[in-house]
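Why does residue order matter? Because the sequence determines the fold. Keep that principle in mind as you read this record.
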Amino acid sequence: MKKNLSIMALAIATMVAFAGCSTTSQVEVASGVNFTIYKTFGWANDNGVKKSGRVDNDIIDNNIKNSVGSELEKKGWQETDDQPDVLLDYNVMVESGVRKRTEPVYGYPYSGYYYSPWRRRLGYYYNPAFFTRYRTYNVPFKEGTLTVNMIDAKTNKLIWQGWAKGDVSNTTVSSKEAEADVKSIFKKLNLPND
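Structure:
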């Protein structure tokens, strides 16, 4: 019972430690794109078909769309359903992996008494902790990637793509994690009027 509790405590501590890891984001812009001609955006229509990579949770789906919309509105764009300049789409992927960790291992300090025949009395000795070896172990983790795509509505070509990667604590991305990822991505969208 105690062993199961200690394993569970270690697993929870690991998830909390990895949940605090930072998110890295990148953007890619198609060459020759003039962002001054784009002022409106809308979401790509799936025709009722659930695309792979989309989250199955409607709450998280709406929160991702609202976060992206909010970030674009801060940059002066407006959302519309009537012939938008740019169509948006997103994709979420969660992958499992294993990281190798290495840490030093030290021997326990110890002390004791000894008899000195020359002095005819007891002596005391202390041996401090000492390095013995390195211990290597595997730590499982889950990494989530959120990708946002901008597609020119007239030419149907991808003009901008931003993605964020970070450790997640579950098999799906939570609304809070997705919102942080969206902010991280859109910090890197440089528009002429910024």
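Confidence is low (pLDDT under 50) at residues 1-20.
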